[in-house]
Amino acid sequence: MVGRFLMIVMRLLSSLKHDESERGIFHLGRALVKGGHTSIIVASADYDDELVKRLEREGSIYHQLFMNKKSWRSLLQIVPLRRLIERYQPDVIHVHSRTPAWILHLALRHASVAKRPKLVSTMYGFYPINKYSQALLDVDTIITVSDSVTRYLKKRLRREHLAPRVIKRIYRGVDTRIYPYRHNPSVYWLRRTFAEYPELEHKKWLVFPTIIGNEYGQEWLIDILGNLQEQFPNLHAIIMDEDHKDGDVAHEDFRQRSTALGLAPKITYVGNRRDDMREWLSAANIVLALANQPESIGINTLQAIHLGTPVIGWDQAAFSEILQPLFPQGLVKKYNAKALCRAVRNQLESVTRPDMTNKFTMREMITETLAVYQTLHLQSLEEERAKYAANPKKKRLRYSPK
């Protein structure tokens, strides 16, 4: 009886290099294998890639197909993907981006399968509802990463006069084993950091955990540093951006403006710190969430909150959804420099930290995602049972998209 409910789940991605906390690729694969299910990952990474080896060590089956976004080479993968689908006969296929979704729909057109696989897609952002995004919509269930994305999607579907879809909101989660509450960086890490960036020692850190760009809101750092430097002379901004990028207008404008205002010595660019982001977030006095455009996930905000680090961010989209239940004092009326500086000053004068929480965790995210798969699989079993009852001699079907 148990075996009947075991699933074969195939997941399609353009790349494995995205932050695993956003997609949960490894955690979800591990959970499927632990439950006795079959986990198949199809992506563009080479077989000798360390991420692929990790997947295989944990029991997932990996196949390399080049399905990078907006590349004509991806069209060459239609037949190879069709062969994989025919070989494994997956019960559920989960697509994580638009190009793999298109390849999937084209591959399924002439696929010889025993039963129609149930299709799931995840919308990670506020994608335009156009032809390119259509493949993400032509599925059995759409997973959205926040209520903001859900509202956006429903509104656009109504505007485009498209039929409603089954939409399930599943927040991205943080692995609390990697980001434990009140984690402290090691003495070794601090010494190494101060040796590399001596200007950071004995300073209060404002960590801006993203790159510089027109949509990311780095210009608000100038308001904070300019207005609070007299009261807090040891205030220092840390930006997760490279030291220099040729032709990057936003980067150059920000550097020139901060230099002209005499704030350049109060800003350090530490580059992409994916490997030790936890240490930077936990060592920060404040983590800033100041994107000028609505944020759909806010993964660094979540990580900082789980570490117990105060976060100050705009009261909009994902930042609101995270901070309202977990650290409401960190919310600031969006695009209001005076309110932003006041919030930073209040936090520096009277330090308050987020409480430990069991919300927005990786475990919660995986449990909810598996529930989506299982619900669809049970629907598929019921549909097959009904078809067999109506026509018991029918053994094999050729799938055609809706």
Question: How does this structure look, described?
Answer:
- The chain folds into 2 domains: 2-173 and 361-398, 3-Layer(aba) Sandwich (Rossmann fold); 187-349, Glycogen Phosphorylase B (Rossmann fold, 3-Layer(aba) Sandwich).
- Helix 12 (299-307) links the parallel strand 12 (286-289) and strand 13.
- Strands 3-2-1-4-6-7-8 form a 7-stranded parallel β-sheet, sandwiched between helices. Strands 11-10-9-12-13-14 form a 6-stranded parallel β-sheet, sandwiched between helices. It has a two-stranded antiparallel sheet with strand order 5-15.
- Helix 5 (98-108) packs across helix 6 (131-137).
- The chain is of the alpha/beta class and 402 residues long.
- 41% of the residues lie in helices and 15% in strands.
- It has helices spanning 20-23, 25-34, 50-57, 78-88, 98-108, 131-137, 147-159, 187-196, 220-228, 249-260, 277-283, 299-307, 317-326, 337-349, 362-390, and strands spanning 8-12, 38-43, 61-64, 92-95, 112-113, 118-123, 141-144, 167-169, 204-208, 235-239, 267-269, 286-289, 311-314, 331-332, 397-398.
